[in-house]
Amino acid sequence: MLKYFTLFVVLAFTGIMVNAQNFNGNYKSYKTSFLDRHDASLNFKENSEHNIAVAIERTDDIYGYVILQDPRIPHVLLTYEIVSDVDVFKHEGITMYTYKAKAMHLKKPKDTKVIFYVKEDNSLNLMIDDDDSSQAWLRLEKQSDLKSKNKP
C-alpha cells in the first residue's frame, strides 16, 4: 500500500522544485470528513490514516500537485494538479490558501479547489472541494520535507 504511494511521489516530483508556501512535504492525517452535496447518506466522518504529499511551485504551466492515498483504495492515488496561483483569505483567525486544481485521477479530469486552512494554533487542514462534494483531512502531521532537485 505505502510502496505505491512512495514510488509515485518520487517519480512525480523528481523535476519539481518544492519550497513554496511551507506546505510542501509528506503528511499524514488521521481524521477525515466527506460531504456529498446531492446525497447526505454518503456523508461521513472517520478516523483513518491517509498519506498526503504536497509539492507546490510553478514550473512552466504546472503549479504543483497534491496527492492523497486513501486506505480503502491504496492502489489508486488521488492526484490533484494545481493550475493557478494561490488566493489567500483570512477570516476569524483562519488563513485559507485556495488553489484551482484538476482531479487528474478521474477518467475525465474535474475542476476542483485545493484549500489549505491554517488556524491560529498553526494546525494545518486540507480540503478538496468541487461542485458535488468536499472532503477535509484534519490536523495534518508533517512527516518529511520534499527536497528540491536544485538545492542541497
Assembly state: single chain
Relative helix content: under 10%
Overall mean pLDDT: 85
Helix/strand/pairing class, anyone?
mainly beta
How does this structure look, described?
The chain is mainly beta and 152 residues long. It has one domain: Beta Barrel (Lipocalin). Helix content is 8%, strand content 50%. The chain contains one helix and twelve strands, in the order αββββββββββββ. It has one helix spanning 2-13; strands at residues 25-29, 32-36, 44-46, 50-59, 62-69, 77-82, 87-91, 94-103, 110-118, 124-129, 133-137, 141-144. Strands 1, 2, 3, 4, 5, 6, 7, 8, 9, 10, 11 and 12 form a twelve-stranded antiparallel sheet that branches. The longest helix has 12 residues, at 2-13. The chain is globular. Mean pLDDT is 85; it is low at 10-21.
Write the SSE topology.
Layout: H1 2-13, E1 25-29, E2 32-36, E3 44-46, E4 50-59, E5 62-69, E6 77-82, E7 87-91, E8 94-103, E9 110-118, E10 124-129, E11 133-137, E12 141-144
Antiparallel strand pairs: 1-4, 1-12, 2-3, 2-11, 4-5, 5-6, 6-8, 7-8, 8-9, 9-10, 10-11
Summary, kept brief:
The chain has one helix spanning 2-13; strands spanning 25-29, 32-36, 44-46, 50-59, 62-69, 77-82, 87-91, 94-103, 110-118, 124-129, 133-137, 141-144. By secondary structure, it is mainly beta. Strands 1, 2, 3, 4, 5, 6, 7, 8, 9, 10, 11 and 12 form a twelve-stranded antiparallel β-sheet that branches.
